[in-house]
Hints:
The structure holds two protein chains of two kinds.
Chain A lengths: L1 E8 L6 H8 L5 E6 L3 H4 L4 E14 L2 E7 L8 H7 L4 E7 L6 H14 L4 E6 L9 H8 L7 E3 L5 H22 L1
Parallel strand pairs in A: 1-4, 1-5, 5-6, 6-7
Antiparallel strand pairs in A: 2-3, 3-4
Chain B lengths: L3 E3 L5 H10 L4 E6 L4 E7 L2 E7 L6 H7 L5 H10 L5 H10 L5 H19 L6 E5 L16 H20 L6 E4 L14 H7 L8 H7 L4 H13 L3 E4 L19 H17 L1
Antiparallel strand pairs in B: 1-5, 2-3, 2-5, 3-4, 6-7
Helix pairs in contact in B: 1-6, 2-3, 6-9
Amino acid sequence: MQTVKMVVTGPFSSGKTQFIGSVSEIDVVATERKISGEGEKQVKDATTVAMDFGRITVDEDLVLYLFGTPGQKRFDFMWEILSEGMLGFIVMIDSSRPETFREARSILQTFRAYAPTPYVVAANKQDMEDAWELEDMRNALRLDPNVKLLPCVATDLKSVKSVLLELLYSILAEMEAGA
Amino acid sequence: MALNGNLRDFTITQLLNLINLASKTGTLIIEGPRETAEISFREGKLAYAMIGEKNNNLAGILYGAKKLSASQYRAIQQRAGHVSDKELGLLLINAGYMTQQDILEALQKKFSSVVRQLFTWVEGFFRFDKQKMPPEDRINVRLDLENLIIEGSRQLREWEQLQDEIPSLEMALKFTDRPGADLKNVNLSVEEWRVVSYITPKNKISQIAKATKMDDMEIRRVIYGLIQAGLVEITKPEGAVKPMIKDNMFPTQDKAEQKSLVNRLINRISSI
């Protein structure tokens, strides 16, 4: 059996666990714990502390594993471990919480330093009324025009599939460019 | 109890606050990555400060504060190089070159600037030596720490923000090709022009800092301003590693098999 992995990263409460849960064929193996910090508690009750783990069986010989990183900075020692050998990564950003954009940029740069693999940025929660528009997000995040910034709703399978496919297209393009 | 530890756990501002609250007397010695700083206090007030082996004598400080001209400074070095700071101070006051107030102000300014420099130190070991005081011949001041502590807290917040904005100095800069972003129409300071003159994707920010003799904080501050004004943007340095496909990502080393594997993933996800 061959296995490959992709990593879903992003700030606290950006929707990483939901993203993996939408597409994984198994229930996400989540390592969530009740939140202790008062500020974070206002956003959600539990958070990922080690990793989330989802699986997509491609065929009898190949399995894709999806790993979600913990979003809070104090668990960032897990990031490097999870990024080892990944095919590519997705940076999830909550489009309705601009206060997390700066952190998202920092996470993106950290991951690029760990492994210069292809990546895409998913602008999650685009279905929310106060979600930022993609172009504004691109400017705020100072993303290069050739970085893929994709609209996303992590609870919607179609949207999640489209983000994963875009990442795979980028991987394929890099392979072809390198060939 | 010994007051010693690591700057990673205790910031300079916190240390000053502690010394101020406890009205401590003695010298705080901080061994930074490149230099050692010694800051002396009397009853919780700043008395003296120096970093590294830099010339910290009164003549040098007064010259740096433009209270002495270059020729006066040279003359003092030649004719009065052997006298102590206290003696030199008295000589200058008695000769009518300056007042006691002028000297104290120059020293306060100098010592405050040494402490401000320390606010950017995030690495290093510190210890507080209750027995150690500045050399006898040096003039001490008596400066309240409150203002420095407030300034330090502000600078710490700014430092954290700048680090978030520009996390790595190993990136390069390029001019934006946005319409209207024309340097000719912008009023830049001398420091900003010095930085601008080195901007090319070939130069990393750390190299520009070295060439312009700016510390991490100064270069980040200048670049942050240029980015906010929409004049420059951060880019990968030329020759930097581009996104790449490494063999450890795949369970197979065969390129054709790797490609087939990605295509199988695409087909599978499309069919979900």
